[in-house]
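Possible regression after last week's pipeline update?

I re-ran a chain I had predicted before the update to compare outputs. Posting the input and the new output here so someone can diff against the archived version. Not blocking, just want to make sure nothing changed silently.
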Amino acid sequence: MVIAFANGLVSVVMYKFQSLRTPSNIVLLSITWADMIIAPVLLAFAIMIASSKYTLACAVAMLNSTVIKIIIFHLTLISAERVYAIRHPLRYNRVVTVTRIRNALCVIWVTCVMSSLPAFVDDKFRGILAYCKQNQSEYSFQALDYFTGVLHYLFPFWLVVVSYVYIARVSLRQRKQVCTRHMISHARRQARDLKAAKTMAIIIGLFLLSFLPLVVILSLQLFRMRLSSRTYEKLTNIGYFLANLCALWNPVVYAYRNQAFKGAIRRLLHIRRLAIRRDVGSHRSRNHLER
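New output (post-update):
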């Protein structure tokens, strides 16, 4: 419920206030939609554990994996957008448009969903690609795991790391510079971009910390480290629980760091309170007239 409310509030605010629909905010809005999918996934896992019925465990796990991939590629897109904003501030508004960001987001969603479809294909057609089939060969299982891990996790991870190393270097260099008169406007623009980048860095840092335990656990299993089945199951459940908490970090951190977003939330809540007061006042006046 907390995940759904927090991310739903971001969506409502973005819908109500058109001034917030910047390219970077559009990406964050798309992340909130992915985060909201995690809420029913967690509920489904809880129901299966409580009832000890795991009929749809594979489908739910694959849905969770697909959402994780979508979020990772969103964070990669945000990192690239922030680097371009800092590196080319004068060309940013002309190159990075809302339309292009939306097209990139559509590609991310479609690609991640399509890449997960082979896992649901029956073994009569492509059994070697089905994660949940017990009769698949060990070699095909390892090959698919390595390919998925490199393409969907390691490659985006290193892109994000390199992007924010560059942002950190620019931030340190800017602090050492002395702003002359002809550099003031450029420095102010760059400072705003750096503040936005720091907000994104906090979001991405919390995301990576959330997923680090799960990545370590899955890596141990992937490289055939000796773990008992019960130990691995317990560690995996803990890892997935921590990983799914990332759905909370985005709205909380973004609302705390962004002044325009906080102001929009206050205005939205104030408008809602005024509407409630008007409804209560009109109801009381009608009751008074009826008497």
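Follow-up from reviewer: compared with the archived run. The chain is about 80% helix and 0% strand. Marking as no regression found.
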